[in-house]
């Protein structure tokens, strides 16, 4: 099955229906610095992102663009010298007013983790404690949040979780080293789902797995999402992976979101040159062979970012305004584009060009329908 075939499973009406759902997690103006004073690095610069109920949101970009920093900051797991400079992370409960995670007390935060939001770490296969059996690690998580539960109830829930992710419940007595890499990954997913959170954040969960196991893990995640209804933030540098599983994709570059659109739109009609470059950086699995384009140059030094567009030095469509005006997320000036689509490129921001006294530019045909 090709990527295009996979995309056809998600009709535009279904994508719009997901987008119409109420937000479950909103990130507003999130800024993160590493270090202090004049030598600090602005790792995130005013990131805005919204996750809706039941949605799979893919977050993609090159290594070092700020993907992991974003989720660790949003969940207050950012290690020093990382510092949240500004912003809000609003969790929307089923009932009641939104809660700003960044301003919760330690007790409130401890209670909400695993209950409201759960995280599968980038090194998930090595996150299990090697000296404890798998069952104990699952039941300890449940006991911490369900102190009134009995030992028998916790063990029954642990067996149920293992079965849910495709592992025999007899493995509850196994140590991590007795499991394969894929099984350990599934255990971590089971642990994240133990308390049925509404938001599951997965930081490159398939990076260290072979392609066959990657496919099995992804199919398991999607099946569980459809069954349990949680929303997913899936982080990876592999855009081709997200095209198959995500409802919506946000592309990150140099600590900012540069494009945010439905997965089908990102694949067929990328509006940012960086998105186009990422799509040409992996080979097609079907159809005629084509030469891989890649992206020339290297990402900018986050400690010394240019005044204008951070992608200007690598962009094949750069023009004078790109060197002096920093682009912000706007709706593309392209007829027929979805109203929810956003892109940070001056070719689509006629207002910014007019304010600077510069003429608008034509949208290159290379970024038209694929």
Keywords:
4-stranded antiparallel sheet; 7-stranded mixed sheet; 370 residues; 12 helices; single chain; disordered N terminus; alpha/beta
Give the topology.
Layout: H1 3-8, H2 12-19, E1 23-34, E2 41-52, E3 56-60, H3 67-74, E4 82-91, E5 99-100, H4 106-112, E6 117-120, H5 134-145, H6 151-164, H7 181-192, E7 199-203, H8 211-228, E8 231-236, H9 239-245, E9 248-253, E10 256-262, H10 263-268, H11 273-279, E11 342-343, H12 350-355
Parallel strand pairs: 3-8, 3-9, 6-7, 7-8
Antiparallel strand pairs: 1-2, 1-4, 4-5, 9-10, 10-11
Would you give an account of this structure?
With 370 residues, the chain is an alpha/beta fold. It contains 12 helices and 11 strands. The protein has helices spanning 3-8, 12-19, 67-74, 106-112, 134-145, 151-164, 181-192, 211-228, 239-245, 263-268, 273-279, 350-355, and strands spanning 23-34, 41-52, 56-60, 82-91, 99-100, 117-120, 199-203, 231-236, 248-253, 256-262, 342-343. Strands 6-7-8-3-9-10-11 form a 7-stranded mixed beta sheet, sandwiched between helices. Helix 5 (134-145) crosses helix 6 and helix 6 (151-164) packs across helix 7 (181-192). The longest helix is centred in the middle third of the chain and has 18 residues, at 211-228. It is globular. It starts with a helix and ends in a 15-residue tail after the last helix.
